[in-house]
Design a protein that fits this description.
Oligomer: single chain
Shape: globular
CATH topology: Cytidine Deaminase, domain 2
Helix content: 10-25%
Strand content: 35-45%
Number of helices: 3
CATH class: Alpha Beta
Order of helices and strands: EHEEHEHEEEE
Structural class: alpha/beta
Number of domains: 1
Mean pLDDT: 90
Strand order of the largest sheet: 3-2-4-5-6-7
Number of strands: 8
Distance between the termini: 24 Å
Length: about 140
């Protein structure tokens, strides 16, 4: 499978969001248009146990989707972090994933003392890792 090329500014934003909330899973959406990945839309995590789970705030998710539509963008990826576990989909992640065509990004903070991010496609409980490559320069 070909690597997905994520713009460095979006990757940096994701890592900074995760570092700002090291004890809770952060989450949100990433958009794309005809030129590739465009914008990161952080969405508040409304899960009861935010250290181990994430649930996108419904109103903020709708607002983000509306903003994408108004900008001519579409949903490309859903991201969240794992504060103290590897960047691999959990059973809850697999069971709750509802967008099989969308990239699933997981950021890990606590496995090797190094920030790590991995991408996946999840469809019918099948997990396929997607290589990620950094695209240098600004989001075009």
């Amino acid at each position: 499978m070909n690597a997905v090329r994520l713009p460095r500014p979006i990757v940096n934003q994701l890592l900074q969001l995760a570092q700002k909330s090291p004890d809770e899973e952060i989450c949100g959406l990433i958009s794309r248009d005809s030129r590739g990945f465009r914008n990161c839309y952080p969405v508040p995590n409304q899960a009861g146990d935010r250290k181990r789970f994430f649930a996108l705030d419904p109103k903020a998710q709708i607002d983000a989707m509306r903003a994408m539509r108004e900008r001519g963008e579409e949903l490309a990826a859903i991201f969240h972090s794992h504060p103290d576990s590897p960047p691999l989909p959990s059973l809850a992640d697999v069971e709750q994933h509802e967008y099989p065509a969308v990239l699933y990004l997981i950021i890990s903070l606590g496995t090797k003392g190094v920030l790590e991010m991995r991408g996946f496609h999840i469809h019918n409980r099948t997990i396929e890792e997607v290589p990620i490559a950094l695209q240098e320069g600004p989001v075009r």
